[in-house]
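Protocol step 4 of 6: record predicted structures for both targets in the notebook before any analysis. Target 1:
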Amino acid sequence: MSTTFAEIVEDVKQLTPAEKAELHELLRKYLIEERRREIRENAEGGLKEYRNDKLQSFSNVDELMNSLTND
């Protein structure tokens, strides 16, 4: 399917107000699902690093900032 974004936008304009509201709700739910998936993947990655002793701890903010700028 090679529909362009502009064509999709034009198609959406033709929808009824009820259809637009339903599409809005679906998109909102899809975005929430994607964000949850991203958070889960980041958490799993963090747990993996923790289990492999690859996490660093810092006793002050300067050490943390130096670590962030040097990575």
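Target 2:
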Amino acid sequence: MPRLDVVPHAATRGPLAFVALLIGLAIGAAPQAAAQAQTASNCAPAGAVRFICNAIDVEDWAPIPDTHWVIGSDLAPAGRQGYLQLFDTRTDTVSKVLPDEIAIRPDKQTYPDCPGPVDMKVFGPHGLDLTRGGGQHPTLYVINHGGRESVEVFATDLTGAKPKFSWTGCIVVPHGFWPDGVASFADGGIVVTSLWDPTDPHRIDKLSKGEPVGGLDTWYPGKGWSVVPGSAGLSGPNGVLASADGHEVYVAVWSGHAVARISRGRGTPRVAMVRTGFLTDNLRWSPNRRMIFVGGQNDTVKDVVSCFESSAVNCPVPFKVDIMQPRTLKLTPVVKSGVYGEMGAGTGAIEVDHHIWVSSFRADRIAIFPSPHVPGM
């Protein structure tokens, strides 16, 4: 059996957490009632919070290191075509990557079981990961729900003025697996979370109770899928990251209101967990990889799922963001729980030019918050 260590929330861990909490309150101080007076087409700031509008349902993103580009997903509701989205951080603008801009170059040796290119008319990009290596040609892994449940693989070309993408293959997930987050290992494998079993009619009730739901699997070329040892019993595995050496996997445990760190590859797995107090959705490294942004919704499972299944342009689901020290799992609040202007349903955050960019699974914008000073960021 894996060893389980539970780490207290940062609120119980000294004066730094209290100071950072005050900072988080300050950057969330714009009155929510006044913010709700904005319309969906209003992209005016909400207090100190700015927006990039026409960024549709950007559930997750992958910053391209040493560039001014960020790749965003588009978790399109059923029936709407989704796109990869490309943010230019110099101008705070966003554009869609159109299907005819994506070349098709299948790598049948690495992905022999892939049935063919994804149907871009129903493409539903969700979680993202851009490999850390690869120089000017990193690999982009994209969770997809359109037409099939899969991880779609794209080669990224950074040699020109703007990133270009080529579809190279896919990895179809096992039956009963609803993929959510993906992270890559330096040895060519990936780790993928399953939020739930889509064939289970009781999954929402189980998630609401924090019961074990979903899974965490790895996939390697030529080897296929296998369950990550030590991952049993998680409730709603969601966002996922891997350490640089691949010896630790960090998992956002959505309906478990926690982040789990699972060791791998070195004997009996050891699991440490910290409670966040909210539906923990996405995880992202800070630019220096010393800290992890932890984002998610501060609401009930049923309210968030209702938003997800709706046709709403924006959902008034409060969200919050913490930053976590990966060694101690200490959490420090950086964005106060709330709805900002029209934007709710936040999922996660990245740091861009000393600002915190926050994504959402159901919004027509992303939010840009002033970044508080937190040691280690």
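Step 5 preliminary note on target 2. Confidence is low (pLDDT under 50) at residues 1-40. The chain has four helices and 26 strands.
Proceed to step 6 after PI sign-off.
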